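Hey, I'm writing a tutorial for new members on how sequence and structure tokens pair up, and I'd like a real worked example in the thread rather than a made-up one. If someone can provide the structure for the chain below, I'll link this post from the tutorial.
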Amino acid sequence: MGQTVTTPYNFLYMAVALLLLLWLALTVIVIFLRLYKRDRESRRRFQYERLFFGDVCISDDIVYMMIRKSDKRLLYLSGNVQRLWGIEEKRIYADIEALESLTAREYRREFMEKWKDWDEKKELVHNFASKDTDGKEKWYELKVKLSETGKAYLFRFRENTCERAEIEKLKEEISKAEMDVRYKTDFLSNMSHEIRTPMNGILGMLALSRMSAGRMDERCKSSVEYEAITEYLEKAESLSQFLLGLINDILDMSRIESGKLELAQEPFDLFEFAEKLKTMFQKTIEEKGVVFKMELLDFDVRSVIGDELRLSQVIVNFLSNAVKFTPPGGKITVTFRQMNRMNGKLHFMIRVRDTGKGITPEFLKRIFKPFEQETATIAKSYGGSGLGMAIADNMVKLMDGQIIVDSEVGKGSDFNVYLALPIDTAHPQDIIEHKIIIEEKKETEAEPTEERTIEGMRLLMAEDNEINAEIAMSILEEMGAFVERAENGQEAVDMFEGHEPGYYDTILMDIQMPVMNGWEATATIRALSREDAGDIPIYALSADAFVEDKRRSVSIGMNGHVSKPIDFKELVKTIGRTVR
């Protein structure tokens, strides 16, 4: 048999075959490693996605991006980037700064400033505009938060172009509505002044008519015609006062709706506040045959900081209603009770309780709505605009308080006001002594008050309206005063400066006047270098009746602000009290 001969070619073929096998094995290994790496990367992405996104569905208009905190490397990017932004995904993976082409420099600068101040505890929110592939501007909301592990940042881009357009539309509508409210408020403010001026004249003429009727011969007073005339005058005055109250309520409601109502933050004494209410209502209530009781319970603080005038408006409204709806033989109780002291505030309650007709459950649900009254017969029988409760509710809400009403038909009503006002630490809280004074006043008859008079006084009146000036001067002169008139603020200053100190006892100053208004005239008089310039009582007589107007008058240097139509009896008391 022959033998196989090994040649160099055989060794070469074997080497090539082995190399091919080795190359094939390496290729398989490389392919396997690549597949394994891709699978591992997919698993990692999936783990990151579940870690940060949970089970949320990735929307077409939302892009998610994940960046490692340590080296700012992009770890994850959702797959709809190219469709939305026109940038290839691999380009962003290669260089994350490619995203800068999305938006303008000012938006990037704004974002970097926010990023610099970000504490990584709450979400960082940033809105920016971007151009899409068609060149149209789109808006995006970017939210950034830190992962639960603290090792990566999650970026969430959400397109909100349509949402922003809707928001802008709503803002325009709100702005238009606010402008309409401002126009309405300004109109009502102007109309307030215009209405009050003739109302002042009407009430003044009625007052002069009553004075003239009072000087009639006794034989005339006993006639039927005289009784009819006085009845007509009384009814005309009553209707005028009702109209004036309606104007005030509408104006208050308008300012509340427009957000122009301002609350004072001034110290006031709760015990003195209670005494004022008692003085205001006790005589009227007891004349009706109703028992009236005022209680102050559990107080170790009496001076707080807030708006006494507005709080008085609320409680007076409750008391007025209690007087209306409580029949003779009933009882009205006003209770002030301290609840607690906390964080420098006094928490207290003011309750007005009556034994009147009560309120039906149906009406209780809408009692604080404007122009609401329980039945049509209420307005006919008791009067009122239906705005008082709505105003009271809004006032208390502005004070961060609450009103709670409890009532039962046929048994009466409780109106409870809960407030927390800052404690006035600048004044002593001498509670025990004041309690004793209140208790003593309960057991004794009311002290006789000195009758106030302006008889013999010389008054300087600044008033540009001829009719109002004529009426006011006639009434004041009927009361025994000497009145000199200035037609504007500058003339009032000149007349005051042209007489010796002490010549005038009081100045009555209209506000809206030509040449120089009443506030400017008062400031000028107070600045004069003469001994009576700082002391002479100056009172505003103005158709501007808002609380803000009254505060401005006092801040300018006036002693008080009397709203038109003028209550001349109160004016005389005020002047007499100040001068005497």
